[in-house]
Amino acid sequence: xxxxxxxxxxxxxxxxxxxxxxxxxxxxxxxxxxxxxxxxxxxxxxxxxxxxxxxxxxxxxxxxxxxxxxxxxxxxxxxxxxxxxxxxxxxxxxxxxxxxxxxxxxxxxxxxxxxxxxxxxxxxxxxxxxxxxxxxxxxxxxxxxxxxxxxxxxxxxxxxxxxxxxxxxxxxxxxxxxxxxxxxxxxxxxxxxxxxxxxxxxxxxxxxxxxxxxxxxxxxxxxxxxxxxxxxxxxxxxxxxxxxxxxxxxxxxxxxxxxxxxxxxxxxxxxxxxxxxxxxxxxxxxxxxxxxxxxxxxxxxxxxxxxxxxxxx
Length: 313
Ligand SMILES: Nc1nc2c(ncn2[C@@H]2O[C@H](COP(=O)(O)OP(=O)(O)OP(=O)(O)O)[C@@H](O)[C@H]2O)c(=O)[nH]1
Ligand SMILES: [Mg+2]
Description:
The chain has ten helices and nine strands. The chain is α/β, with parallel strands linked by helices.
């Protein structure tokens, strides 16, 4: 009897998954963070910032929308690239709705977006019920007269459930998107505590924030050749936390560049990560960074397991 009553209350709520896919740098993580209202996925001006699936949870009335931010989809060259692209498509497989983000400030439709659309066409042939919506992002950088043309061009390639034009950074056009998504979610009890913003463990978030600061401060191929892990997290009696991290670099020469003269560069990067972590976690943080040369980390399955990436994708 009681359980029936519980079920009937549950049918008033909706919950499901909305995957964000698109070419690198389209603004997927920026959009998820904006809607969730907190930084759960890191953002940089560089391509290929997101490396794994990151879930962010948003509430819209009686709907719980679980966003799945994914790595940008591009032509993979290395093992890590393949694992990232694979993770992005896996995000689509588990989603009730997939949002394809496109940076409409680009002069033309980029090659990556072209091949993503082709892949979606294949998926739709196999699974006609899957829903795909198109989001033209960065309208703040786009001439209004070119917007409709771009929407039309993409819609001719594939029939989307819906087309939105937004600025993830400025928060424009997002209300419509959220209310549409809220209605697309299937009837279901909430899948997460409505207070939750993410399912990412704090220690992983700490590693990501540090990786973001490394991306922002290092250039050329260096950011792509490193990875960050939290080795341990220790609670201190004074309420602070000690976080011990390893930064793995794949070339000997990179260690010196990351550290900088007398370790000054690493110190600066570590400080900016620590400051952000302190405001995120609202407590004092002691961040320890250890830069390690590990030539073959990109071929080490342990580095992938940590992020739920498939080694042999
Ligand atoms: N002007 C403007 N910039 C934006 C907008 N959305 C995102 N950006 C910027 O675009 C860059 C890339 O944003 P991300 O959110 O990291 O893009 P992403 O699609 O997650 O990129 P990957 O993780 O590399 O695939 C950042 O510098 C953002 O600040 C927007 O609507 N307008
Ligand atoms: Mg991203």
